[in-house]
Amino acid sequence: xxxxxxxxxxxxxxxxxxxxxxxxxxxxxxxxxxxxxxxxxxxxxxxxxxxxxxxxxxxxxxxxxxxxxxxxxxxxxxxxxxxxxxxxxxxxxxxxxxxxxxxxxxxxxxxxxxxxxxxxxxxxxxxxxxxxxxxxxxxxxxxxxxxxxxxxxxxxxxxxxxxxxxxxxxxxxxxxxxxxxxxxxxxxxxxxxxxxxxxxxxxxxxxxxxxxxxxxxxxxxxxxxxxxxxxxxxxxxxxxxxxxxxxxxxxxxxxxxxxxxxxxxxxxxxxxxxxxxxxxxxxxxxxxxxxxxxxxxxx
Length: 299
What we know:
Layout: H1 10-27, H2 29-66, H3 75-121, H4 123-126, H5 129-142, H6 145-170, H7 177-203, H8 205-222, H9 227-233, H10 236-291, H11 293-298
Helix pairs in contact: 1-2, 1-3, 1-6, 2-3, 2-6, 6-7, 7-10, 8-10
């Protein structure tokens, strides 16, 4: 009977997240800062847009009250919306540039990390079965380091967005705060759950062994020196079929986990945006009622 792997603790999850950020920092400090800052600013866009539109609505209500409409008064708000659109377009481009730099520079940096660790352990240690399995898992997961780091950045930016929105909402509608915190905690648990599920799928002992074996098969089939022997024995069809069958099974399971994680994140994002929107509507509704009570009551 296969021994069940222990759950990833909160401390281990934080350690993994911190390690992935340190790796990104080692690849490029400026690109890591760029990716983090642009992700945070990008997440704050709905709050900023809501504030600008609230000011615009405030101006329109003032027109209705004073009956002194002047189209020129709208120009500053239209200009602000245009500037914001240009600003966030620039933020999107900078975010793409920063993540692109990290992705392109990561290959050599991660390879260097791998061979330095192997050199540190030595040949005799690497040959031990448990260490060999750990080494294979390291090679399998090394390429996903930046993806883990990207998830960490998204969690950090979502946390900052929650804090900013919470500060705005708390002053007027404190009852919404528990709902915001509950959604944020659910978002964290969802990330943690699917991170472990994907990790377990990829580091499953049977999968590690079969990936290693199929890696050897792919190497032999692609090596011109082995073509003669493979042709004589007629092994190409058999080896190719085994390779395709395993990776069809393996990738199908991996994609299933990724689809579930993406759907879960989307649903939680919709729920979180709905909760925040309820808070915003109540906040700005109270502001309008406070400034223009007669207009609101008679409309």
